[in-house]
Amino acid sequence: MGIPRELRNWGVQLRSPQPVEALLLSNNFTLLDCEYHAPELPVDETWTLQYGQIPLLKPNCSQPAATEFHSPMQVAVPDKEQRAGWPWPAQQASHPCLRPRLTRTYPFHILLWRWLGDSLSPSYTPLNATSSSSSSSTTTTTTPTLSYGERYLVDSCGLSLESAVSVSKKLQLLHGIGLGDPQPVIECFKAYGFADTHIGKAIEKFPRLLRRRVEPNLRPKLDYLIQIGFLGQLLPDLISKDLFILQRSLDRLKARHRLLWPYLGSEERFVKGIFRYSWLFSRSFQKSLTANLDLLAQEGVPHSCVGTLIFVQPTAITRSPGRFASIVSTVKSIGVGPPSSPKFIHGVAALSRLSESSWNKRIELCMSFGWSGEEIWSAFRRFPYIISLSDEKMTNNLNFCMDTIKLERQDLITNPLLLHFSLEGRIRPRWNVLQVLKSNNRVGEDIGVVWALSMSDKSFLQRYVTSYADKIPELLEMYPGDDKEIELDDLIE
Predict the structure, then answer these.
(1) Residue 41 main-chain phi, psi, to 5 deg
(2) CB of 147 within 8 A of CB of 164?
(3) CB neighbourhood size of 216 (10 A)
(4) The predicted structure's pLDDT at residue 207
(5) What three-state secondary structure class fits 155?
(6) What was the pLDDT predicted at 9?
(7) Among residues 208, 322, 328, 382, which one has the fewest Cβ atoms lying within 10 Å of its Cβ?
(8) pLDDT given for residue 265 in this prediction
């Protein structure tokens, strides 16, 4: 197993070193090129710690000393009284002196501090730890000693022993803090209707949640979410879905609500949109959101159409302002309706799904079937999402429609929605029904195939299936109905 990539070229300066009894690391992390500076030494020294079997280059030592460690919590740190009696110069060879000056490198500086600093607690006993006696060949399993906080997690919200200990360990290693008393936070969540399963999953994903203050931090945010419409079960469901919401400040939540509210229009629509795309509420896109929404306003796009964009393709408004401006400009140049029309915003949504290279590939694919550039733009103006279909779907639908059904290219350009339909769920079954009806002389050869493929599922069943089911019962098996009825028919009118 190699050295973790994040630590290969990472160094931390150390100063004012004090003796620490034992060496470090776990078998999962490695510290390389860790420099320290001490006024007692004439020159700076470099410590190099390797992975697994850890050679440590000590001051004034020409040969590394190899020591293997299995858990970061096995490091034994002497108390302050013991350290006070150790003269630094005399102990420098036998007692490595590491006291990190904390940097902004997260979380590695915290890991170092926990492994090497004053507050490291060696009381944790890993689960499934075994100990062997030199006088006996038997192996005994030690039972972990749970702290009050770990026991409370097990008893109050149903966490397993392993999960409770894991939560405590993550807090110690990643954040340099103990578990403390989790009762206030857990009782707060229960008061707002959070079930044990909600709380347990939240704590496992984000252990530091247990160290949040209830009054100045958690409760005001939960109250605000209720105030803007997340009532009843919606609140715990939202938080369980996206814990980043509770990591944002209350002011940020309010600012994002003020920004999005005018476009979503009502409390019901806002709650529905944020619940579906919670990252719009919790992630930091303020600059991109503001710039892109301002651009749409300058182009004359009404708020209702922007709300449609948020529901159909929310990632569009989080793109870089430069890329978003290019997309809007392209849609305008193709002529997908005026900016005030719903079709324009669907053109923006469709084009936002593609990179420039993907856009060019779709153009090349359509041209390989004989379409000209103007025919592609004509189809795009009628149904913008044609350009965002996968290569496989577009190829299969074009082949079936042109080779099997014998539709003309102009039929598809005029009715590009046909290419969006499911081949196996709609086009092929309907075509088979029409063929059976033709063979039984129930419909004529001049039946409008494009019309039959485009009509709603309910209308097709009534006209071509149930009305002939008494004479041709196999029709019901051939076409039970398209359970994935397209929802874009009304949007692109």
Answers:
(1) -100, 140
(2) no
(3) 9
(4) 76
(5) helix
(6) 32
(7) 322
(8) 80
Residues of the chain below pLDDT 50? 1-143, 173-177, 487-493
Question: What are the start-end ranges of the H helices in 232-315?
Answer: 234-241, 244-247, 250-264, 267-276, 279-282, 286-298, 303-312
Return d(Cα 168, Cα 127) in angstroms, integer.
13
Q: How far apart are CA 256 and CA 61, in angstroms?
A: 58
How many whole angstroms separate alpha carbon 357 and alpha carbon 107?
37
For 73, counting Cβ atoms within 10 Å of its Cβ (0-12 exposed, 13-18 middle, 19+ buried), the class is buried
Whether residue 268 contacts residue 231, with contact meaning beta carbons closer than 8 Å, is answered with no
Q: Is 54 helix (H, G, I), strand (E, B) or coil?
A: strand
Distance CA 297, CA 345 (A): 12
Q: At CB < 8 A and 24+ separation, what contacts does 452-455 make?
A: 453/418, 453/421, 453/426, 453/427, 454/415, 454/417, 454/418
**Nearest by Cα to 452 from 433, 439, 436:** 433
Peptide bond into 107 cis (omega under 30): yes
Phi, psi dihedrals of residue 239, rounded to the nearest 5°? -65, -40
Pairwise CA distance, residues 36 & 24, whole Å: 16
Q: Collect all residues with Cβ–Cβ distance below 8 Å to 218 and sequence separation of at least 6.
A: 185, 188, 212, 246
Q: At what angle do helices 183-191 and 148-157 cross, to 10 degrees?
A: 20
